[in-house]
Design goal:
Length: 637
């Protein structure tokens, strides 16, 4: 109000002064923020000391560990740790991590001991790094090491060597560090009281990061491993040299790069071990099974709070399935789940969680999570705090409605099935009778002209594509689009989604991409944050790919018989979305999603070794009749 009054009395001929005044005001705001950061930084340096230790593991390998210790000797302090393959920089006892610039400053003000550790074989730690190192159930000697044993040895050293700790340890991590948090829960150390795997890397073949239902996530694998996978011959403090990006247009570049065999030969060679492993294990074999932690999540002792994003393009699968497995295999444990309207890591200091792209959520969901869920979780279990947590067992943000909900189970008790059949004239209907009318729809899937995953041009995989407007694909002839009637009342879809397609191919293989879309009314009056009109917007709620050869088994793929009826039934990641009255539900079906995922040659050949000449067009027919009732099913509450 004061600013408005001052500006309102400025003569129109004095706009130069007005511009000067606004600049002065902005500089003062910036100065105030800088002063606050400086104050928080000063607080950390006045109240903390930093130590760097090489902590020896049971097999003699030492891991580099940064420890921030409160100077307050009047009480004992809990320990919170993050184990990471991404470096615990900055290195040097005089250099402090900028925790004071994030919500983690509240842990500092509460006097927590903060620990970061480079995992085995990464950055300044000794040893050999192994991606998603398998868990060893029965360790017979000190040579049998895994990430759980490294966690145990580290926790044991900390509680016995760091002064004034209270004997309670918590571990958290997002993404790859989320995997190390999951493995920490398997360590069995009695001092470990609380663990939070957040968007945890879990199953790199079925649903996380580099494969979805066996389809290779080309963009993420290409960009991640050209930096992360560079060999580290000795401990170092910086990332190894990385090749620059190759084109501004990822679609054009990846298309010209050719088959996967050409991409590996021309851009990676044999220098990246895990890239070699992915190419050598095209199916779900022992290599992938050994690296899945879910079968081992039994009788977990620490409290576990799993966190994930509804629109996480990388590890949405890991969050949902880690919690479901804990509930199934370790139901006596203190298990919690938080799923918000977030992209990857959005809740952990990357934005306020109020929107993604054009879609707004009406509140700062990330800040709510930090203040009401994560911090109270660790305070409660590490301090024996008498304060209760505000969250329930299951805490899910339902988009569309834009509210948090608490449940005791997931899916929520009382949920009931809701099935939509594909019908004639591109319709979706609950009426099974309509689906019995003989008919089918078809398109030509051409690997030379795959369906793009985004409407514009860019190099990096966007996080916004998870909610992008899908009108650009509705216009393509190689995408089937089905739409419901206008909804007469709100409909909340909640829990897993099942795509059940009856198909016929002209070739021996194809991929199937199914997308669930919320179609806004044409006269929708709200606007996106950047004033984008949302009338007619086709918001992607959930999309997933299925490599057809794995329709019956991920470990024993089989080709299709050209011209013969077949069935492709698979799960999409869970959803929590309210389709509002006046909206429509849309389903799209296509056979490519490029370059998000690699192109299927549409022949039953090894996709990792085949040639560009092996790629052929395929006629894909989706059947919808009495014997072939293709449908989409989810739960509603």
């Amino acid at each position: 109000m004061k600013i408005y009054l001052i500006l309102s009395v400025i003569n129109i001929h004095s706009m130069r002064f007005a511009r000067f005044f606004l600049l002065f005001l902005c500089l003062n705001v910036f100065h105030s923020l800088s002063a606050q950061n400086s104050q928080d930084s000063l607080y950390m340096r006045m109240h903390y000391t930093k130590e760097e230790k090489m902590i020896k593991m049971r097999d003699g390998i030492s891991l580099f560990t940064s420890i921030y210790i409160p100077t307050d000797l009047s009480k004992k302090h809990p320990i919170i740790m993050v184990r990471t393959p991404y470096s615990c920089r900055p290195y040097g006892v005089e250099k402090f991590a900028e925790l004071y610039n994030t919500y983690h400053k509240y842990y500092l003000r509460a006097g927590y001991i903060i620990v970061f550790q480079d995992v085995r074989g990464r950055f300044m730690s000794e040893g050999v790094f192994e991606d998603i190192r398998p868990f060893i159930t029965n360790k017979k000697s000190s040579k049998d090491i895994d990430e759980a044993s490294d966690t145990y040895d580290t926790v044991d050293w900390l509680v016995n060597n760091v002064a004034n700790n209270n004997g309670n340890v918590g571990i958290m991590g997002i993404s790859y560090p989320g995997f190390y948090a999951t493995m920490a829960a398997l360590s069995g150390h009695p001092a470990l009281k609380a663990v939070s795997p957040q968007a945890p890397v879990t199953d790199w073949f079925r649903g996380d990061d580099f494969h979805h239902n066996g389809a290779f996530a080309l963009m993420d694998a290409f960009n991640f491993y050209r930096s992360f996978g560079v060999p580290r011959p000795k401990p170092l403090k910086q990332y190894a040299a990385v090749k620059s990006k190759f084109s501004e247009d990822s679609y054009d570049f990846m298309l010209k790069a050719g088959a996967l065999s050409d991409i590996k030969k021309n851009y990676f060679g044999d220098s990246l071990q895990f890239m070699n492993d992915m190419y050598a294990h095209p199916d779900l074999d022992k290599f992938w099974a050994d690296r899945n932690p879910l079968p081992h999540l039994n009788d977990i002792k620490p409290a576990v709070m799993v966190v994930g994003g509804l629109f996480d393009a990388e590890d949405c699968y890991g969050a949902w399935n880690t919690f479901k497995t804990l509930e199934s295999q370790s139901s006596s444990s203190d298990n919690m789940l938080v799923m918000g309207p977030w992209y990857h890591g959005n809740w952990g200091g990357r934005g306020d969680g109020a929107s993604i792209g054009n879609v707004k959520f009406g509140q700062k969901t990330a800040e709510w999570y930090q203040n009401e869920m994560e911090i109270p979780f660790f305070f409660f279990f590490l301090e024996d705090s008498p304060n209760k947590m505000v969250g329930g067992k299951v805490n899910v943000f339902i988009t569309g409605e834009n509210n948090w909900h608490k449940f005791e189970t997931w899916p929520p008790s009382g949920s009931r099935p809701y099935k939509l059949y594909l019908t004639s004239e591109n319709g979706l209907s609950q009426n099974a009778t309509l689906a019995k009318a003989a008919g089918s729809d078809s398109y030509i899937s051409d690997p030379a002209h795959p369906v793009p995953y985004r409407s514009d041009i860019g190099w990096h995989r966007t996080r916004e594509y998870m909610l992008d407007d899908q009108r650009f694909t509705s216009q393509r002839t190689d995408v089937l689009t089905y739409q419901s009637d206008i909804l007469e009342e709100d409909l909340t879809a909640i829990g897993p989604v099942i795509a059940d397609l009856f198909v016929k191919l002209s070739t021996t293989d194809a991929d199937f991409v199914v997308k669930i879309i919320d179609v806004f009314p044409d006269d929708f009056k709200e606007y996106a944050s950047d004033k984008v009109p949302m009338g007619g917007y086709q918001m992607l709620v959930r999309g997933e790919i299925m490599r057809g050869r794995y329709r019956n088994s991920f470990s024993d793929p089989e080709g299709f018989k050209p011209g013969k009826d077949d069935r492709v039934k698979f799960n999409l990641p869970d959803i929590a979305h309210n389709f509002r009255k006046g909206h429509r539900i849309m389903v799209q079906i296509q056979s490519s999603w490029f370059p998000l995922f690699d192109r299927n040659p549409q022949q039953f050949v090894n996709i990792y070794t085949c040639k560009q000449s092996d790629f052929v067009k395929s006629k894909v027919e989706v059947l919808r009749d009495k014997l072939h009732p293709s449908s989409i099913e989810f739960l509603i509450k």
